[in-house]
Design a protein that fits this description.
flat, mainly alpha, single chain, 6% strand
Amino acid sequence: MAPAATATVRTLKRDIPFAWEGRDKRGQRVKGNSLAPDESALRVELRRQGIAPSRIRKQSQSLKGGRVNAADIAIFSRQLATMLASGIPMVQAFEIVASGSDKPALQKLILDIKGDIEAGTSLHEALAKHPLHFDDLFVNLVEAGEQAGALETLLDKVATYKEKSEAIKKKVKKALFYPAAVVSVAFVVTIILMIFVIPEFQKLFQGFGANLPAFTQFVINISEMVQHKGIYLAIVIGAAVWTFLYFKKRSRKMREVLDRIALKIPIIGPILNKAAIARYARTLSTMFAAGVPLVEALESVAGATGNIVYEDAIMKMKDEVATGQRLQRAMQARGIFPNMVVQMIAVGEESGSLDTMAAKVATFYEAEVDNAVDSMSSLLEPLIMVVLGVIVGGLVIAMYLPIFHLGQVVG
């Protein structure tokens, strides 16, 4: 019984990422990254591969190098697709990609997948073990490529899809980040004025012996409230933000309401609509080109739009398509797709080139998002400067009004 227990313990021992250097059978220097239970086990494995290790060091398993994000997965997809298309064996390709990454978290993810593949697991099954980084869409496309014997081609499509998706996300974030950043700076500047600058003016005004203008007194009252109750206001605001984010993450109904409101916000709403349509068309094109049946493709497409309003509409379209209705009719019935998109999809269905027409729709709306973001930035810059001027200028005027009045009295 004892030997069996020992074997079980060894099986459950966790692998550790190592970076190694050495020389191969031809005497050339080689280096790479590998997972192993310990250094001695790694030395044995390297010698079995014909490599004489000269240096082995344990890599940090912390996420100090940063968490793996969607942009990292897009780059990984492109690198893997390029190497497999060049004829590099899959395991070696994973070694090269891992050694080229400076993120410990990403290195560990890649080496975990490599270890599963070396153990005989298919690529899509190895990816499916990491759902935080590889969604159902990614896994399904890779599985379709493996089954069709065209993994390199499908990985190239996946890489293109991820790159386009990340580009559109960055554009939308850019559209939202700029005004949010400026408003945040304006808030911080206002708080600093309220806490440090206005009290100095207040001390000066106390020696005037006269009533202050109503606007000045109003600003001073706000300043006193911020000074004496600011910590409580900060706690209340912080708790409100935390509660909002908590329920937003867990309540689908709340997210649906917020998504509907976001789509109707002037300037930003049209950008979000175009971005959702671009993601819908790009994902549909990629899935259909990979040979995934339309009904199954629509289920993955729904989750890729990034908006619950579109997600619910596409799931209803999927049900209608499953009963034999054409995709064009199902889209038209939803009332959220522009007529041009519906007509181009209709042409694609009739001509048997749905993937091509969907790709053209995606390209058009991705360009529309780019133009809309650039136009919005140009429009918001002067508008935000006006808002900042009104806020800061209003505070300055409020502080100088008593001085102006005093000058008039003396005159």
